[in-house]
Automatic annotation (TrEMBL):
<feature type="domain" description="NOA1/YqeH-like C-terminal">
    <location>
        <begin position="410"/>
        <end position="510"/>
    </location>
</feature>
<dbReference type="InterPro" id="IPR027417">
    <property type="entry name" value="P-loop_NTPase"/>
</dbReference>
<dbReference type="InterPro" id="IPR052807">
    <property type="entry name" value="Mito_transl_resp_regulator"/>
</dbReference>
<dbReference type="Pfam" id="PF21516">
    <property type="entry name" value="YqeH-like_C"/>
</dbReference>
<protein>
    <submittedName>
        <fullName>NOA1 protein</fullName>
    </submittedName>
</protein>
<dbReference type="GO" id="GO:0005525">
    <property type="term" value="F:GTP binding"/>
</dbReference>
<dbReference type="Pfam" id="PF01926">
    <property type="entry name" value="MMR_HSR1"/>
</dbReference>
<dbReference type="InterPro" id="IPR006073">
    <property type="entry name" value="GTP-bd"/>
</dbReference>
<feature type="domain" description="G">
    <location>
        <begin position="197"/>
        <end position="248"/>
    </location>
</feature>
<dbReference type="InterPro" id="IPR048422">
    <property type="entry name" value="NOA1/YqeH-like_C"/>
</dbReference>
Length: 549
């Protein structure tokens, strides 16, 4: 069997179109690795073949959601980002930083690191904060988005990001497109084409998804999406290794006018006027999120087919198969930018995700991460607990209701794939010992062997005072596994004990993110502490609703 790596072959000097790492076949544990045989075959196909290829890691991520273990310490991520930001301004003006945060992770653990990452020697022109993944959260009451924006503003102030440095705060869903057209308009109106733009954020904040969405929006030069391959999108932390970029379109008066005309025209449409393919795509997005928006293109004919998350291009082979011949289209000459198209271009860069320390995802396997990270609209699950009862969120979090006069409501907001189990205090330890690592608690998975190496749950005592039966007093955030909103009678004092795996952060979030979430529930299920779940309807922006809807 020929060796997969061959250190004698020099690195290519060409970046992987999925993660931006330099492609090489010398070290299978380093970024940009392509098996030696495939690497030589690509070189033999001519100079156009390699720039369209992806490394083995990106291919594995795209096809199997599996990340090959890479030797890339968190400090390396920070070094790449920091060095990029310290480049001298190319156009006499520092870059605009587009900081992407996951609203469910508030207060964002990486945001306080931003001032240090920038430092006094970074000539940044400002930070525009993008609160992402709003599509996953149910509306608990009127004005919930305004309240979410306020929470993001508070997190920015807490991190020392305020005044002139903070350009704006926008709420979006990079995945369903909600709010993205508004973000593009805001960027074109205020930043125009003044300098480069850098996307920054923690791993799993949806940064690469936003990069891909902007790549096929009016923010990107019209020919660019056909030339630039899209960033690898995967829940595995730190998937963007080096800097990927696309050229920003210059928003001339004529272009802005044409864009506004398109948006106005689209806003007059109803769902009934969409093509069957558009309807199908829209319904798919509605299943995935509560808030949906279409991202269109004014300056190029939109492809009618629904976008695929990732085009693996020429590396169409599996780990244990021989490489398959590349598709016919890659035998044609690969398109490249002309000198005139890029000589004065301003670029939008995607950067490596900054790894969150004290995060439960760092302890999990790829398969477990996929179960824990919500990919569809979260359906809240509410339980009424008396003192002496315990709630488990998989085997990743536990909340004991130790003392209180009356029952209280515990609303779980986490991936719909994670099980919630309620038991008594006297049975809780036995349940954990018996079922952690098994199907009953689901994550972690892998039985006794897995649990031997998994950190034990460690407790933290929490005292809360209720503010009424329709408003939660706080969220107990179980690292990145999800959170539990606690609602109690007015002035009712509760003593709780919450557990997360050792070395992960447990946060008491006051005020809660969705204070009225316990009201989004059905009838009580007889003989159980659970209520029937209720899924609020989805909302599509920039689409006229018909009378009956």
């Amino acid at each position: 069997v020929p060796s997969l790596s061959d250190p004698s072959v020099p690195s290519s000097g060409v970046s992987c179109s999925g993660c931006g790492a330099e492609m090489q076949c010398g070290d299978s544990g380093a970024p940009g690795f392509v098996p030696a045989e495939k690497y030589r075959s690509l070189l033999s196909e001519g100079p156009a073949a390699l720039p369209g290829a992806v490394c083995q890691r990106c291919w594995a991520l795209a096809h199997y959601g599996s990340a090959l273990r890479l030797q890339l310490p968190p400090d390396e991520h920070r070094r790449v980002v920091s060095a990029a930001l310290r480049r001298p301004p190319r156009h006499g003006r520092g870059p605009l930083l587009l900081y992407v945060l996951d609203v469910m992770e508030l207060p964002d653990p990486v945001l306080p690191q931003l001032p240090a990452l920038l430092g006094p020697d970074v000539p940044a022109a400002g930070v525009l904060v993008v609160g992402n993944k709003v599509d996953l959260l149910p509306a608990d009451s009127r004005g919930h988005l305004g309240r979410l924006r306020q929470r993001v503003a508070e997190a920015c102030a807490l991190a020392g990001l305020r005044g002139g440095a903070l350009v704006d705060i926008r709420l979006v869903s990079a995945k369903t497109g909600y709010g993205v057209e508004g973000l593009v308009s805001r960027l074109q109106r205020s930043w125009k084409c003044a300098g480069d733009v850098y996307l920054l954020g923690a791993t799993n904040s949806g940064k690469s998804t936003l990069f891909n969405t902007l790549l096929r929006s009016d923010y990107c030069k019209s020919r660019a999406p056909d030339i630039i391959d899209r960033a690898t999108v995967s829940p595995w932390p730190g998937t963007t290794l080096n800097l990927l970029k696309f050229p920003i379109i210059n928003p001339t008066c004529d272009r802005i006018f044409r864009r506004q005309e398109r948006l106005k025209d689209e806003a007059t449409k109803t769902e009934d006027q969409l093509s069957s393919e558009e309807k199908k795509y829209l319904n798919q997005l509605k299943k995935q999120g509560y808030l949906v928006g279409e991202v269109g293109r004014t300056f190029q004919q939109q492809k009618s087919s629904a976008e695929v998350d990732f085009d693996p291009d020429v590396l169409s082979y599996s780990m244990d198969e021989d490489p398959i011949d590349p598709p016919k289209k890659h035998e044609e000459e690969r398109e490249e930018f002309t000198h005139n198209e890029v000589k004065d271009a301003r670029w939008c860069f995607d950067t490596p995700g900054i790894v969150k320390e004290d995060c439960v995802l760092n302890l999990l396997t790829e398969k477990e991460v996929k179960l824990v990270l919500p990919s569809h609209a979260i359906v809240p699950r509410t339980f009424i607990l008396k003192p002496g009862m315990v709630l488990f969120l998989a085997a990743l979090g536990r909340i004991d209701y130790l003392e209180g006069e009356k029952p209280a409501w515990f609303s779980v907001l986490a991936s719909n794939l994670l099980p919630v189990h309620v038991t008594t205090l006297s049975n809780a330890d036995t349940i954990y010992e018996k079922h952690a690592g098994q199907e009953f608690l689901k994550v972690p998975m892998g039985g006794e062997e897995r649990m031997k190496e998994f950190p034990p749950l460690v407790p933290q005592d929490i005292t809360l005072k209720g503010i009424g039966t329709t408003e939660a007093v706080a969220d107990i955030k179980l690292s990145s596994a999800g959170w539990v909103a606690v609602t109690a009678h007015m002035e009712e004092e509760l003593l709780l004990r919450a557990y997360t795996p050792k070395g992960t952060a447990l946060v008491v979030r006051e005020p809660p993110l969705l204070p009225h979430i316990s009201t989004i529930r059905g009838a009580r299920i007889p003989g159980t502490p659970a209520y029937r779940t209720k899924k609020p309807p989805s909302f599509v922006e920039n689409l006229r609703t018909t009378g009956g809807r």
